[in-house]
Amino acid sequence: MLYFQFQIDPPKGWTFDPVEVPINFDGATDLCSLGKDINFNFKGFAVTGKVTSAGSGSGPSGVQLQLLDESGKSKLEVSTGKDGNFIFTPVLPGNYIIKASHSKWMLSKKEVAITVKTGNAVVPPDSLVVTGYEVSGTVTSDKEPITGVTFIVFGTKKPEKPLMGCDQSHVSGFSTTSPELKNKVIICHVVSDISGRFSFPCLPSGKYVVIPHYKGAQNIKFDVQPPLLEFAVEHDSVALPTPFQVKGFSVSGRVLWSKDGKPMAKATILMKNKVVAVTQTDGTFHLDSMRAGTYLLSVKADDVLFKETEVKVTPKSPVLDDIFPDSYKVCGKVKPSSQSTQVQSRDVQFVKKESGTVHNVKVESASGDFCTFIAPGVYHASVPVTAEEKNKGLQGQVVCLPEQTCTGITVVLTSTTGQDHFTTTTVAGGKYKLDNVLPGDYKVSLDRVSDWCWDQSSAPLAVNSANTAGPTFTQTGISITFVSSHNTKILYKLLKKNKGANDKVPTREMSISTGKSKVCFPDEGEYEIEMVGCHQYIVPKIHWKGGPVVLTAISHAYTGYIITQEPVSDLVITYSGNDETRQSPKRLGPLVGVKKDATKYSYSFNLQLAEGEKVTVKPTAKSLLFSPPSYNIVGGVDCEENGVTFDSEKGKILKGRVLGAANTPLRGASVTLADLDDSVISSQESASDGYYVFGPLSAAKKYKLTALKEGYIISGPQDNGDFSAHKMAEVNVEVKDQADNSPLESVLLSLSGGQNYRRNSVTGPDGKMNFMSLSLGQYYLRPMMKEYRFDPPSKIINVEEGATVNIVLHGKRVAYSVFGSVTSLSGDPEVGVIVEAVGVDGQHEDCSQLQEESMSESTGQFRIRGLQPQCNYMVRVKQGMDINKHIRRATPEGISVKVVNKDVDNVRLIVFRRLTQTDLTVLVESDTPEHLRSLKAKLYRDEVVVHSMRLSDLKITPTFALSSVVLAFPPLTPDGRTYTLQLESSLSQASYTYSTQPVRFKADSSFRSARLAFFPQPRSHDSELSHTSYLVVPLLAVLTLLFYNQTAALRCFELVNSCVASLAAARENNTRAHHTQDAGLSDADALLVEPVGNKRKSKPRKT
C-alpha cells in the first residue's frame, strides 16, 4: 500500500476546496483504482484594498465592508484590520460593489465598483475614504455639567469642504492672542449640551488645539480651565482625557449720569477701598473671576457724589443694577446788569418742582461764580431781584428763504423750570418781541419745524440784563422724510421748471441713516433722487414730488480679494448658486489688479447678493494654485467689504510625451501622477500625439510620474518629461469548435515558459485570449475544457523579441451535459442541492463505472458535465454522509437519461426538505362553558409534563355560550418521540361523575390534531343523604374503638394507605394506555401556553 497526499499550490489569494487530498493506493478501493477523478474545486479569487483616512495613506480598523453582486445581494462581509487593510475571499469573476460603513464615522467615499476577471483584484487607492473621526469632551463646574460653552478647534489648515456637524460661522465676542495658535487657523466650533458634553463629529486626521469660550446669559463671561488643550486625531475617535472646568464668572455693571441717562466714562469702581475697575466710554465696567456673594461697591467721579452700594453677585444675575449719582455739582455765575449792581453775597435760590424744597447758595466771589451739589430733580433757579429790575424787554429775528414769507411764525419762550411761558408771532421782516421777561434761563423755540429746515429749531437764552437780545432763526431748506433699510448714500438735484439749455443744476451727495430720518434739501421744488453705494434697489432712481421716501435694499455688495506674487492677465472668478435651479456658472474678469507692496498684487471682485443667497466662488488662472480652492458665501444683511481672501502660488506644470519605436507617439498609455508616498493624485491616457499634461501643481511638493501600457515596457520620464516605450512579444490564441468552426468560450488556456512566466486564463465569448508582455523564449501552451478534446492537445511556441504569434486551436466535443432544475413542491428554486448522474449501462463496458455531479445554483438550475455518449445514466439527488443534509427525499428518486450525441434538457427534480417542527392543535369539547373553564390540558413526554394550559386563563369573550375551544400548543421537535395529551378537571368527583381519556401520538409529521371530550354527569343528592343516614351509627362505633386503640389503628392506617397508593398508580398508567387517537390536519388559532417544570406536581383534589 502506498500513501500519497495531493496538494494544490495556487497563486496567492486564489481559493480551492479541498486544498489537499490524501490517497492510500491499495489497488482496489482507492480513487485511482475506482477510476474516480481527484477534483480541486476553484472557489474564487481575492479582492484586496484599503480604507484610508482623508489626507492620509493609512486608515482605521473596524470599518465594516460588504461585497455586493450586480443584483445588490451581499456575498461577503469583512472588517478592516491594521492600517485599514481588508481582503475578500473567495470571490468569483464578475462585477461587484464594495460598500463601507461605520456606526460613528462619516465616509466621503463609501462605495467603489470592482471587476474580478482572471485573477486577484485590487481596489484603487483612495477609493474608500473616512472623512474624519469624533472628538468629544466634557465641561463641568463643581462636578455639575455646563451647557452652552462654545469650543473652538484650531488646525494647521482649513478643510477643503465644510465639516458636518461643526459650525464654521464667526463666534461673537471671541478673540485670542495665544502663542500656541501661531500658524493655526480656526476650523469650526461646537457647543456643549445639557449633559456638559461636546463633540466634533468629523475631524480629519491631524493635530489640533481646542479653546473654550463661554459667555452665558446677558453676556456673562466665565473663566474656563484649561484655557486650551492640544490633541491629535489619527485613525480613531478621540475622547479628550482632560475635562474643562468653569472656575469663575464675570460681573458687569453700568454707571449712568442719571436713571435711564447717558453713560458715565472714567468713573472709578472701588471694593474695600481698592480700585477694581474703571468705566468705559459706554459707562460699563467688568469684574472678572467673581464668586457668588454680597459686596460693597463705591464709585468716584468728577462733579458728582455717589452713595456706597451693596450688591449681591450670583451667576444667575451677573449684570448689576445701574448706578447713578446721588447728587450733582451745579455751578453758575450771576452777572450784574450794570457796573453799579453788586452780585457778591446775593442768594441763588433752587426750588425743587415736585416738592417745593428750597436750596439756597450764597455767592461768595465778587465775580458772581458759585458751585454746589444738589440731588437729582427739576429746579427753578432764580436770583431774587427788586421791582425795578423786573421791567426788562427781549427782541429777535426769523430769516426765511427768498420764496417764503416769515410773517406770522410763532415764537415760544419757556423758562427752564417750566414756570414761565411766553408766546409771540413774527411781524414783517420776521422780527419778534417779548415784554416783561424776568432775568433767568430760558429756551426760545419755533413751532413750525415739521416741513421747514432751520439752522436751529430752539436755542437757550440767559436773560441777565436789560439789553439781552433774542436768538436769530434762519431757514436752511425744506425737510424730506426718508425711511431706509440700510445706511446708504444718495445723489439729488433740483428739477427746475423752464430752465435754459445752459442752466446747469448742481448734483449733491447726502448720506442716509438706517431707519426713519429727516433730511434737508436746500430749495423747494421737485427732485431727482438716485441711490448710490454698495446696495441695490428695485428702482435705482426716483422722481420726488412730495411725501416720505422709502428705500429698501434687495441685495448687498460682497467684496473679496485674490493675492498674487506677480501680475497675471487671465485671473477669472467663476461663481454659481447653490440653489435647486442649477444655473450655469457665471464669470467675472479677467480681473485687474493693483500693486499691494513690493512683492504682492491684489485683485478684488464684487458680487451683489441677497440676504441668505448662497454662491460658491472659485478663482482660476492658467499658472496659479489658490488657497482655498473655492469658498462658499452666504449673503448677509449688509455689505461686506472684507470678504474672503484667496492666496495664490505659482503652480508647476508637468508635461511630456510617450514615444514608441523611432520616436513615434504612443496613444492610450496610462500616465499616473503620484506623491512620494505613492498616493495617486491624477491619471490620464496619452493623446494621439503621445502628449500628457498635469498642472498647475504645488511647487513645494515633489511628484512621481509613471506610464503603463499592456504589452509594453515603458521607461522614464526623461528630463523633458518624455517616456520611452518598448513593445514586448504577445501570443494571440483563438479556439474554435471543430464541428461548425464557431468560437469556444470558457476554454482554460495555460501558458508557461520564458523567464518563469505562467498564466492560466479562459477564452471570452469570441473564443479568443491574448497573452501579452512576453519576453524572448520558448513557451508551452495547453488548452483544457471538460467535454472537449483539442487538436493539438498542447503546443510548443517559440517567441521572438517584440513578435506577435497567432495560434488557432480546434476542439472536438467528446462528452455532453444534462441540464435541469431542482425545485420544491411549490415550484420555488432550491439552491445548493448536489445532483449526480450515475452510469447504468450502455454500449461501453465502463458505462456503469461513470459518475458526474453538480450543484444547483440560486435559480435552482444545474448542469452536469462530462457525460459519455452511448451511455445510460440515472440522474438523482445525491445521498450520503454530510451530503444534502437539509433534504429529506426527492421525487422522482431518479430519472433515466440516455446520452447519444447531444445535451439532455428539462430534467426536473422535486425535493422535500427535512421537517423543522410539528404543529399541534387540540379540539376540546364539553356541554357547558363552566365545564370548559374547569379543565386543564397537559402534554406529557416520557411521563414528564412539557406544557400545561388552563382553559380558564384563555382570554375568550364570545357573544354566545361556548361549548368547545381549539388549543394551539407550541411547535414540537419532529423527533418521532411519543407524546400524550390528558385533561384534568377541578370539578369535585363528589358532585360529578366523569373520566378523561388520554390521546397518544408521535411527533413525526408537520402537523398533528386531536379531539378531547369532557361530559361530566352530576351525582344524585338523595342517594348521598340516604347513605349518610345508614352509615352514621357504624361510623360512631368505629371512631370510639379507634380512640381506645390508637397505636394499633395508626399501624393499620399506614398499611391501608400504602396499598391504596399502589392501586392508584397502576390505575392511572392503565388509563393512559387506552383510547389512543391519531392526529389529523386542521387549522387552529394560537393561544397562550403556560410552561411548567419537568416533573409532575401533585395537587390536592377539590371537594
From TrEMBL:
Domain NOMO third transthyretin-like: from-to ranges: 136-245
Subcellular location: Endoplasmic reticulum membrane
Residue span, NOMO fifth transthyretin-like domain: 329-395
Entry's Gene Ontology molecular function annotations: carbohydrate binding
SUPFAM superfamilies: Carboxypeptidase regulatory domain-like, Cna protein B-type domain, Hypothetical protein PA1324, Starch-binding domain-like
UniProt domain NOMO seventh transthyretin-like: residue ranges: 480-545
Database matches in Pfam families: EMC7_beta-sandw, Ig_NOMO, NOMO1-like_1st, NOMO1-like_2nd, NOMO1-like_9th, NOMO_12th, NOMO_3rd, NOMO_5th
Domain ER membrane protein complex subunit 7 beta-sandwich: 268-318
NOMO-like ninth beta-sandwich domain sequence ranges: 651-725
Listed name of the protein: ER membrane protein complex subunit 7 beta-sandwich domain-containing protein
Native source species: Laodelphax striatellus
